[in-house]
Amino acid sequence: ATRGRHFACFLFPITMKCSFLATLASAAAITLSHAETVTPVQKVLQLMEGMLAKGKSEKHDEQVQFAAYKQFCDDTTVEKQRAIAEANEQIDVLKADIEKAIATAARLTKEIADADEDISVWKGDQKAATNVRAIEKTDYDALHKDYSESVDALQRAIAVLKKQAYDRKQASSLAQVSSLTELSLIPAEAKKAIEAFVQQSPEGLEVEAPEAHGYEFQSHGVIEMLKKLLDKFIEERTTLEKTEMNSKHAYDMLMQDLTAQIAQTTQDREEKAEAKAKMLQAKADA
Questions:
Q1: Can you spell out the DSSP letters for 84-143?
Q2: Distance between CA 131 and CA 254 in Å, rounded?
Q3: Distance (Å, rounded) from C-alpha 96 to C-alpha 165?
Q4: In this predicted model, what pLDDT tens digit does every residue of 122-135 receive, in sequence order?
Q5: DSSP 3-state assignment of 97?
């Protein structure tokens, strides 16, 4: 623009000069029409005409140069405007990328927090399930031991009662039958019947069989009672064993599921944490 003003300032004197020379040339032409010889004035006029022609040429050259400069300025303006538009567009894209990175990082932060909470809950479930399982196993072992001891004692007592008839010399063997009253699983009514049987004296028995078979009739009822208890305890022990097996299987399946969930969620969390770091780095780079 400054150069353009310089051109304009330069062209203005030339234009005025050319106009002045043109006026002089016209006046000289009028004067020459009245004279037949070349005078000094005519020579001056010829010189001025040459200067006029030169001025016109220089003016034309300046106009051409100015036009070229103006075209350059116009082209440069268009190019700069296009560059500015592209830069603004790029800025908008970067702003959008930054906003997206911020939103994604926020989402990943929440998902990571949720994953941490889930992992913590599942680990708590594992710990609680393990504690419950330990209690169940302890209870099972104790109860199974009681059943096994009761079954064994009943089998021995029944065997003793089946083999023995009344015999004072063998009375001490009834101690195995008497020991049943010490077992926790034997019902109170059964304990009373056993105690009554053991404490009865041979003289108090009302029997019709010979004396050698004095206890046979009385012990029959006790044997039947003990057999029923034996069958009951074996059945309950079997049920207890099945329940324990199912409980252990359920615990194993639960632990397997929780372990798999923890492993998968931990992997997902690590991937999300890595993605979050990349998003924050992309935001910083933008």
A1: HHHHHHHHHHHHHHHHHHHHHHHHHHHHHHHHHHHHHHHHHHHHHHHHHHHHHHHHHHHH
A2: 13
A3: 102
A4: 999 999 999 999 99
A5: helix
